[in-house]
Every structure is written in C-alpha cells, then in structure tokens.
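U., I forgot to send this yesterday:
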Amino acid sequence: MKKRLLTEFILLLGAGVLVFLDQLTKQLVSTNLTGGREIVVWDGVFKIVSHKNTGAVWGVMSGRTSLLSVFTVIILLGILVISYRIKWEYKRFRILKIVLMFVTAGAIGNLIDRIRLNYVVDFLYFELIDFPVFNVADCYITVSMFLLVILVLFYYKDEDFSLIWPKKSQSSATDSTTDSE
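Result:
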C-alpha cells in the first residue's frame, strides 16, 4: 500500500511539474508577446506568437469555454478512475500510467486557462504548413494520445485490460438479474 501511495504521489508530482511548465510558457508568451509581437524561430517555418483560443483543437466549438471545461472535468474524472484501477505492480501498465499522467497534465493546463482567462493561450505556430497555433499542454495531449493508440493497438492484449476492468462472469450477471426480480 505504501509503495502504491508513493508511486501515485510521484505521478501526481510529475503532472504538477508538467502543468507548471505549461503555465510558465503561457505566462512568458502572454507577458512578452503583446501587441502582435512574435518571435521568428525559423523564418517561414516556425514562430512563436500569442493567440487566444476560445475553442478546442483548431478552434472547434469557439466561444464554448464553459462546455469545454465541463467536458475536460469529465475526461479527468474518467482518467482518475482508470488510473486508480491500474495497480503499479503490473509492470506492463507502468507506461500507461505515465501516458495518463501526460494527458492529465495537458488537460489541467488548458483547463486552468479556460477557467482563469476564458480562453486558452496558444503560441506555437508551424507557418510552413499553416498548422493551427498550439501550446505545450496540447503537445502533452497529442503525443500521449498517439502513444496510447500505439499501446492499445500493438502492445496490450484484450486480456491485459481485464486486469484493469474485470468482466462480469455470466453467472454473476444472471445472479444479479435473479435477485432483482
């Protein structure tokens, strides 16, 4: 039990550090890139700009900050439940817990912006491909979701997930139906 609490604390601390880094970068941009100023990192390819995003990815659902905040909280609660069910002793799931830590940090980082500012501060812009402006929290989420897909498709098997979420046996499902009748 102590080992589990320690590992959960370390993951929580890791998420806290990631959120801090995200918020620090957003604060630096908000403070230093006012009035349309930008930093050209690679001319015609990549620059740092200040952009206020009231929507989700690519500006989808613009102006729906409250709804996006509620959606984020629901996602975070789901991650919390799944993460709690994964025992650290299952070495096979350690990478999954770390991936969930990054998703959590990204979601919290953007949620803080939505609650505090009513928009998300985005600032990384790939001008070469005219990719939508994004931020560090978005990087956490995107990379982790990519890794999650790879893990689910190629690393984990169906029976691995029964350790996290055991399926009810047919007899227990029948017993519960009989009890309620």
